[in-house]
Amino acid sequence: MKTIDVSREAFNTSQASQIIEATPRQIRYWDKIGLVKPSIRSAMGKGSRRLFSYKDLLALQTVKQFLDEGLTLQRVGKCVQFLRKKLPEIIQPLGFCRLISSPDTIHLVTDKSNLMDTVMSPGQYRFSHLVDIAGLEHDLRRKVIAMSVHRVEEVAVGDFSYQVEVEADVDEGGYVATVAGLPGCITDGDTLQETLANAKDAIEGWLEAHEDLKRQGIHVSMKPQQRKRIRA
């Protein structure tokens, strides 16, 4: 049985905002100043969408945590760069991981037994901020999977945008997509990106078949109110 592989997914600014509980404006600003840039797709002018990876979301969540604790943007940037460099590719949930910022250095501790030796010198603390990366990642993974269980996306085909309901296939893994207003227009995929790409193909195929049936005098109902014309 396949499971939802969050490391392979992509998230737009609105989704990232909902997951990490920061405003879209904050996320766009962090991108603009180079704090966390979307690694899947950058904004390429008006109307284009940023696409963040799961690893980007963890970086964004770390940024928000440190900023909430009062670190400067400059210091937060160094912490995020260090985290990206030291943290291996996220495939399984992290067991134990703490990111520690002190005035003169940054530590990433992945062994609980070494935590006290890392953050303390005899009789006094040497660090100013500590973030539980494993805890953040656990909560982030839970939110992403919850969002993936059921979501509504818009897929553009021609001059129209169609609503596509995407649900996680809890039995077989991957996702199933149903196009609202187009009876029988259903597809699936292993990842959200693949599922939405397949949904676009399915819509195009459905519309072609619909036109063929019309020419044969066979009427198949569709709900035009479920699609929106895209403005030029």
Summarize the structure.
The protein is of the alpha+beta class and 232 residues long. The chain has helices at 13-20, 24-32, 54-68, 73-86, 115-119, 133-149, 192-215, and strands spanning 98-101, 106-109, 120-121, 124-125, 129-132, 150-157, 160-168, 175-179, 186-189, 227-229. Helix 3 (54-68) runs antiparallel to helix 4 and helix 3 (54-68) packs across helix 6.
Describe this structure in words.
The chain is an alpha+beta fold and 232 residues long. Helix content is 40%, strand content 19%. It has seven helices and ten strands. It has helices at 13-20, 24-32, 54-68, 73-86, 115-119, 133-149, 192-215, and strands at residues 98-101, 106-109, 120-121, 124-125, 129-132, 150-157, 160-168, 175-179, 186-189, 227-229. The strands form three sheets. Strands 6, 7, 8, 9 and 10 form a five-stranded antiparallel β-sheet that branches. Strands 2-1-5 form a three-stranded antiparallel β-sheet. Strands 3-4 form a two-stranded antiparallel sheet. A hairpin with a 6-residue loop joins strand 8 (175-179) and strand 9 (186-189). Helix 3 packs antiparallel against helix 4 (73-86) and helix 3 packs across helix 6 (133-149). The two termini are 44 Å apart.
